[in-house]
Write a structure and sequence with these properties.
Catalytic activity: thiosulfate + hydrogen cyanide = thiocyanate + sulfite + 2 H(+)
GO molecular function: thiosulfate-cyanide sulfurtransferase activity
Radius of gyration: 21 Å
InterPro entries: Rhodanese-like_dom, Rhodanese-like_dom_sf, Thiosulfate_sulfurtransferase, Thiosulphate_STrfase_CS
CATH topology of the largest domain: Oxidized Rhodanese, domain 1
Largest sheet: 5 strands, parallel
Number of strands: 15
CATH class of the largest domain: Alpha Beta
Keywords: Repeat, Transferase
Strand order of the largest sheet: 5-9-8-6-7
Shape: globular
Protein name: Sulfurtransferase
Number of helices: 12
């Protein structure tokens, strides 16, 4: 079973139906975003009434009758600030295996202010060697499901905790952080997004990841775990411009649902799951996640479906050339004159798409890390299902 099912990444559980964001200033100029969820029980109250839409845009269910609307309120604060997209865009987001091999030949990476991190999923059936057995020389390991998130919540570690983690890895303010992993770098890309979320300025991916280094090029792996001096990196509050919470997505989804599921809200929604998941035929890809999934199947109204593997070279695991990536998304219906929100199941595959669109193409992109595990288990949010069925726990299976 994939760790996408058995672990929770840093995803924000933010409630249901019609919601609003309220911002209050905390200490140090940080913005605390309070997520307030309102569940409408009466159609006359002016809240969301369409729970599910098909291809024809017909409502699968509507709330009727009269009366007052009851609210369920989840007052969850996410500490962060809006720093825009400029600080996360960089000219050289990818490094090659040749580049890394040359740096390793030059000596200790920490003396070159380079920190190499392995962030892998380590599935039992992977053809690649797990870090505990051998890894790229001088690489340290980061356990994504434990070290980035708070225990028993769907929220990230605090700013201070991220500072402590980064310093323990030997990261300085001006360090170049190079990330790689298995499975075409999807968890490494997730780590890249998390590092950018906390203000790291020079974060790159090893293009092709462990697959290219080990399987394709048969380069050296070692058992030694490096010892590095403590770094001086200081995390910043989360950059809320590259993270979308459920209320942000709901605002877009409601506009699209009101337009018969057409994308009219001025924000692209990119669903990077499999076509079967997007269409609502399955809850998750059963070959990968053994059939476990959300109680409602389908996609967020107005989203386009570009499976994340479509932008990766099948042989080397590297990203496709920039213009090919851009063409794939534009042909799918993405208008890059508008901002984009990417989502998947728990946010890590969407981070891979975020890396491609934000870092390689330089576009304005955020990750809805709650993704389908939040959306598909939330009562009252609009869902589109291309099968015409009520699929999932509450439908005909």
């Amino acid at each position: 079973m994939s760790t996408e099912d058995t672990n929770t990444s840093g995803e924000q559980s933010s409630g249901a139906a019609s919601q609003q964001n309220t911002q209050t200033k905390g200490s140090g100029g940080k913005t605390a975003v309070a997520v307030v969820a309102a569940a409408a029980l009466a159609g006359s109250a002016g809240f969301l009434v369409a729970n599910s839409t098909g291809d024809d845009g017909a409502d699968a269910s509507t709330a009727g009758g009269s009366g007052e609307a009851a609210q369920t309120v989840s007052n969850i604060e996410v500490s962060g600030e809006h720093r825009g997209f400029d600080e996360v865009h960089q000219e050289d987001p990818l490094v090659t295996t040749d580049w890394l091999a040359e740096r390793l030949d030059e000596g200790e990476l920490h003396e070159q202010d380079i920190v190499l991190l392995d962030v892998s999923e380590d599935l039992p059936d992977s053809e690649l060697t797990p870090y505990s057995e051998a890894h790229i020389p001088q690489a340290q390991y980061v356990e994504w499901s434990e070290e980035f998130t708070q225990p028993n919540t769907r929220e990230f570690i605090s700013e201070d905790e991220f500072t402590e983690l980064a310093q323990s890895l030997g990261i300085n303010q001006d360090s170049t952080v190079v990330l790689y992993g298995d499975n075409n770098n999807w968890f490494a890309a997730y780590a890249s997004w998390v590092f950018n979320l906390y203000g790291a300025e020079d974060v790159r991916l090893l293009d092709g990841g462990l697959h290219k280094w080990e399987a394709y090029e048969d380069r050296e792996l070692v058992e030694d775990v490096p010892e590095v001096p403590e770094g001086d990196f200081e995390a910043q509050p989360q950059n809320l411009d590259i993270r979308a919470l459920q209320p942000d997505v709901l605002e877009v989804a409601e506009e699209n649902a009101a337009a018969d599921g057409e994308a009219v809200a001025g924000t692209n929604l990119v669903d990077i799951r499999s076509a079967e998941e997007h269409n609502g035929e399955v809850g998750v890809d059963p070959e990968i996640f053994e059939g476990e999934g959300a109680s409602i199947w389908g996609h967020i109204p107005g989203s386009v479906n570009v499976t994340w593997t479509d932008i990766v070279d099948d042989e080397t695991g590297e990203f496709l050339p920039e213009e090919e990536i851009r063409t794939i998304y534009e042909e799918a219906g993405v208008d890059f004159s508008d901002p984009t929100i990417a989502y998947c199941r728990i946010g890590e595959r969407a981070s891979h798409t975020w890396f491609a669109l934000s870092q390689i193409l330089g576009e304005e992109v955020s990750v809805y890390d709650g993704s389908w595990s939040e959306w598909g288990n939330t009562v009252g949010v609009p869902v589109a299902n291309n099968t015409g069925d009520r699929a999932g726990l509450w439908g005909q299976q």
